[in-house]
Specification:
Layout (H helix, E strand, L loop, with lengths): L1 H19 L8 E8 L4 E7 L4 E7 L4 E7 L5 H4 L12 E10 L2 E8 L3 E8 L7 E9 L1 H15 L9 E7 L16 H18 L3 E5 L9 H10 L4 E8 L10 E5 L7 H11 L1 H4 L4 H12 L4 H19 L11 E3 L11 E8 L3 H7 L2 H21 L5 H7 L1
Bound molecules: zinc ion.
Length: about 400
């Protein structure tokens, strides 16, 4: 795992160096924002031109160094240090200066070791080009927290930790996903069903749900996996709505990650489309590749793929009582969002938003509730057949 992380970091460096080549006239940073979310802090720089950058991780003391090429040092950047909150979990302070001709250096002094992700977003609506730096806790620091939590729970015999389900509403923000003929957007339908599923799960005595997003905003695919792992999820369920050039295409399907490749041409096509969510969101492919590479490097996927297939089968069975099935078996494809190495993960294509009939149903709150209920019933069936698969039991047995 550590070896994989090191290699990943090298690749991030390489990508950063490559993306920094090429020359541009000096551009202005129009806006510089920082906000801490629950599990990461996001720094966003916005400008009219794409921002060329290079990111370095430095230890003793821990800091991130972000070099911006051909950028003017004007007000938005100068004010950035004053925008760091004292309670920011990761950033102690920010310093900015001219490093050498043509390069502005931003130094983030850190409170702890971090795992940064950097990507760029293309202009959309009122937003310009954005360079986004997400600062996550470093993986081994995260593991330390996890094991500490487990140690705290293990000595209480008979009182298991609830099963944690990560519910992922597909797409969001500037990535609307697919859309229906009557104007419904996949990102809204998925959020509505995800919220219903969360409420139903939270009503169960021994289950708890977390949403990877609870609003209309964009999260890169890998960020969703990181959130699920941070929450120590036992399962990951990503909610989507399907689309096809053919209006007649209809029905539900369930996907699990494939080790080798897609089980069908349709599955391959779909994986490409869902993965392109990051591209639709405007993430630069050259910077995105390392994330995919990182997720591919994970080691313990085989076990969770067979668990994912079992979970998928149970969910598909329940969906079949609500909706025709688009495919009668769990399909497998290389979805980036399913690549949590140790969490059984499925992607549910609830129905076809491109089918006017199914679009109407997807917009209907009673149907959304039934859909959420069917997914929950599938999850419950999975755990009733495979009780040892809940992480809480693993913890109890240690
Ligand atoms: Zn989707």
């Amino acid at each position: 795992m550590l070896e994989a992380l090191k290699r990943w970091k090298l690749m991030v460096f390489a990508a950063a160096v490559f993306s920094a080549s090429g020359s541009h006239a000096a551009s202005r940073i129009d806006s510089a924002r920082i906000w801490p979310a629950d599990d990461y802090t996001r720094l966003t720089l916005e400008s009219k031109e794409p921002i060329q950058q290079k990111l370095l991780i430095i230890e003793n003391p821990d800091r991130l160094v972000l070099d911006l090429e051909d950028v003017e040092l004007d007000d938005a950047l100068k004010q950035l240090p004053s925008r760091v909150g004292q309670d920011d979990p990761y950033i102690k302070a920010i310093r900015i200066g001219r490093f050498k001709p043509g390069v502005i250096r931003i130094v983030l002094d850190l409170k702890t070791k971090v795992s940064p992700e950097i990507f760029s977003l293309k202009p959309v609506a009122e937003y310009g080009n954005r360079l986004v730096l997400d600062i996550y806790p470093k993986e081994d620091a995260l593991m330390h927290l996890v094991s500490k939590d487990k140690a705290g729970e293990a000595p209480k015999p008979g009182k298991a930790r609830p099963i944690v389900i990560a519910v992922d509403a597909g797409h969001g923000g500037e990535d609307p996903g697919a859309h229906g003929l009557h104007g419904s957007l996949e990102k809204n339908v998925t959020l509505a069903i995800a919220r219903r599923l969360k409420s139903l799960i939270d009503e169960e005595p021994n289950m708890h749900a977390m949403l990877t997003r609870d609003g209309d905003y964009f999260i890169p695919l890998h960020g969703r996996v990181v959130k699920a792992r941070t929450a120590k999820a036992d399962l990951f369920v990503s909610i989507h709505a399907d689309a096809s050039p053919s209006r007649d295409a209809r029905g539900s399907s369930v996907f699990a990650l494939s080790e080798r490749g897609a089980t069908s041409v349709a599955a391959r096509w779909l994986a490409r489309r869902e993965n392109e969510s990051d591209l639709i969101g405007g993430v630069d492919l050259s910077v995105k590749d390392p994330y995919l590479a990182k997720t591919l490097l994970d080691l313990s996927q085989t076990a969770s793929i067979s668990d994912s297939l079992r979970l998928g089968k149970d969910v598909l069975h329940e969906l079949g009582s609500l909706n025709p099935l688009h495919s009668g078996m769990v399909e497998q494809a290389g979805f980036a969002v399913l690549k949590a190495p140790d969490i059984p993960s499925i992607l549910v294509e609830t129905a076809f938003i491109s089918n006017p009939d199914e679009e109407r149903r997807l917009d209907d709150s009673a149907y959304q509730e039934k859909m959420a209920r069917a997914i929950l019933d599938g999850i419950k069936h999975y755990f009733s057949q495979n009780p040892a698969l809940a992480r809480s039991n693993l913890v109890m047995n240690q």
